[in-house]
């Protein structure tokens, strides 16, 4: 990803969620390198570090709607993005992490 950022001719905003309890974080993922590359090139990046989350299905599903809304907005589909944000704001998986806030947990 760092190489792609350094060579990018287009700068579409990036949204990255990273679980801080991810076993691949220190040796493989290294989001700090992506963050540094984006800062050096002025590439727009939102890097959200999520405490208590690993690399599991529950982590991914918890933040998936945020990413759908992010892409919809980038494609100019504001109404879709707002609808996703509104419909998913309270639908979060209770099993994903002990650090989930209760306002984001789903039944």
Describe the structure.
With 107 residues, the chain is mostly helical. 48% of the residues lie in helices and 11% in strands. It has a two-stranded parallel ribbon with strand order 1-2. The longest helix is centred in the middle third of the chain and has 18 residues. The protein is flat, with a radius of gyration of 15 Å. The termini are far apart.
Count of beta strands: 2
Q: Terminal Cα separation, in Å?
A: 36 Å
The structure class reads mainly alpha
Helix share, percent: 40-55%
Low-pLDDT residue intervals, each spanning 5 or more residues: 101-107
Succession of helices and strands: HEHHEHH
Strand order of the largest sheet: 1-2
Instruction: Evaluate the radius of gyration.
Output: 15 Å
Total number of helices: 5
Tell me the strand percentage band: 5-15%
Largest sheet descriptor? 2 strands, parallel
Coarse shape: flat
What is the averaged pLDDT score?
82
Secondary structure blueprint with pairings:
Layout: H1 2-7, E1 14-19, H2 25-29, H3 31-41, E2 45-50, H4 57-74, H5 78-88
Parallel strand pairs: 1-2
Briefly, what is this?
With 107 residues, the chain is mostly helical. Helix content is 48%, strand content 11%.
List keywords for this structure.
107 residues; mainly alpha; single chain; two-stranded parallel sheet; 5 helices; flat
